[in-house]
Structures are given as structure tokens and as C-alpha cells.
Amino acid sequence: MMSPEHASPWGVAMYTDAEIDRAASAIAEARAQAAVVSLPPGLPPLERADAYRVQTRVNQLVMPAGARIAGFKVAGMQRSSGSNVAPGLVIAKPLCAPLWDHQVQGSEVTLDGRGRRLLGLETEICLRIGVGAKPGGGKTYEVVGTIAAFEIVEQRMATPIDSSHINLLIADSIANAGIVLGPETPGWPEGVLEDEATISRNGEQVMARRIGERLEDPRLALGVLCEALDEMGWVVEDGALLLTGLLTTELWLKPGDLGEGVIGRLGQVTASLAKG
Questions:
Q1: 244-252: average pLDDT
Q2: Based on the domain organization, do 58 and 188 belong to the same domain?
Q3: % helix / strand / coil in the chain, to the nearest 5?
Q4: Which of 126, 146, 167, 230 is positioned for an S-S bond with 46, CB 3.0–4.6 A?
Q5: Residue 1 and residue 243: Cα distance in Å, rounded?
Q6: How far is it, in rounded angstroms, from Cα 17 to Cα 153?
Q7: pTM here?
Q8: Structurally, how many domains does the chain consist of?
Q9: 171 and 38 in one domain?
Q10: What's 154's domain CATH number?
């Protein structure tokens, strides 16, 4: 059993292994029942280091046997919040969570909303990571492709979400429910930060924003991920995906809705929610 006050780059971990299991089991059960995610009564406040331990245990409970990490998401890189469920959320240090291979889908997919609380789409730039070897040992990471993408998000927490909920958000993998991939451009297209990202519902534009207004540089997410690797025990495989953050706002879907995202020169990505 891990003793309290275990040191971590994320801070000090205070939960015992039993408390980690209690918290993770409560989140996993809520997700299975499409209920609001919360911690069980009687647990101490959830600190950042413990939130990542809970996240790992939740994924062990909810992911199917044989599921593999296909990539990662980094949240909180934006210059300002574009969220319509968390307009007051301030993230002082970016957050990380894994993406799973069975949740990676191609554009024009029809999503199944059964057993979900509320599904939404976020226009995001997804990076493809190339992994190499350093002379003398170690690894190098570089951007080898840039993809127009939707992150599929599930609203599993009570709203509005504010900064006091950040650690619970981490424990619940930052609302991730998958990723939809559009066209891929080799390398990093210079000038893309000056392009416009838009999101539309059923052909009607909901929001448009200049990419550089939202993100200083999506490639900075790679440095955030590298800092997390040793602590989380994650391994970045060659060709792994990296989601870099919300560009417009969440598009919450009703049955039959079609979401369309256009991310400048990267192109278009679409996804719809099944009618029933």
C-alpha cells in the first residue's frame, strides 16, 4: 500500500491505495450508469497527484480488455476558456489523459449515444508524433503530421464546472470519450495559426475563431506530455496521436445532429449522433 505523502511531480499524493480504489470505483460506476461523476462521501479532498492515480485506476476499470493507448490529450493550453460548460475554469497547469485505440474513428462517423449522458464535439488540432532514438540512449519526439480533428467529449460532471473541479476532471480523463480524425497534413504547416477554425451544427455555423487567438502554439503540448511520461508510466509509440486543446467551443449533440469542423488549411472533419 502506498503511504500518504508520496512525492510526485504533480504534487504530494495523500490518498491510500484503498482510497484510490474507492474514488475510482465511484467514478467508474457513475460512468456505467450515465450518472453525474462525483467522489464518494468521506474521502479527503482530491489533490492533483492523487487525481492522476485515480485516473489510471478508472481506466483500468472501464476500458475493455486489450485496449491500448493510441495517444494522449493535453488540456489547458488555451489563452482563454472557450467552454460553454466551464466559462470560469482557469487551468494554471495543463492537464493530461490517454486516448484509447478503440475510440479512434474516421471523419463522417455516426456516434452511438446510448448509455451516454451528453456527447459533444470539440474542434482541435491533433499532432502525430514521430519517435526516434537519441545517440547514447533515450528518445526524441517530433511532430510528423498535423490533423484536423474532433475530440468527442462527454459531459459527465455537474455544471457549471469551475476551478475547484479540476482534480475531479483529471480523475475522469478530462471528459474524453474518443477522437475523430479528418485529413492529415505531413509535418507542421507553417501559417496555420493565422487560419480560422469553425464549428457548425447541421450546416449552421456556431463559432469561428482564429487559431492563434486560442492557442499560442499547439506543438507546446508535446513538452507538457514529455514531462508527464515518467510519472504516469506512459510510453509514446511512434505514430501516436496528441490532442492539443479546444479551438472554438463545445458542440453538444442531439440525436440526428451533424457536427462539422473546419480547421483552416488542415481541412474538414464531420461526425453525427445517431437518431436513436
A1: 93
A2: no
A3: 25, 35, 40
A4: 167
A5: 34
A6: 28
A7: 0.91
A8: 2
A9: no
A10: 3.90.850.10
Are 93 and 48 in a shared domain?
Answer: no
User: Looking at the DSSP assignment, which residues form a beta bridge with residue 68?
Assistant: none
Note whether 18 and 127 are same-domain residues: no
- Asked if residue 145 and residue 51 are part of one domain, the reply reads no
Write out pLDDT tens, residues 13-32.
789 999 999 999 999 999 99
235-251 burial: b if 16+ Cβ within 10 Å, else e: ebeeebbbbbbbbbbbb
* Same domain membership, residue 102 and residue 53: no
**Quick one: 154 and 98 in the same domain?**
yes
Express each pLDDT in 203-240 by its tens digit: 999 999 999 998 889 999 999 899 888 778 899 999 99
Grid cell of 84 as nine digits: 460553454
C-alpha grid cell for residue 21? Answer: 480504489
Q: Residue 213 is placed in which grid cell?
A: 487567438
Question: d(Cα 221, Cα 129) in Å, to the nearest integer?
Answer: 11
All residues at 6 or more sequence positions from 249 whose CB lies less than 8 Å from its CB, including other chains: 82, 83, 84, 122, 199, 206, 207
Render pLDDT for 36-75 as a digit per residue (tens, 0 to 9): 999 999 999 999 889 999 999 999 999 999 999 999 999 8
Domain with 115, as residue range(s), is 68-273
Place of cell 455516426: 110
Phi, then psi, of 159 in degrees rounded to 5: -110, 160
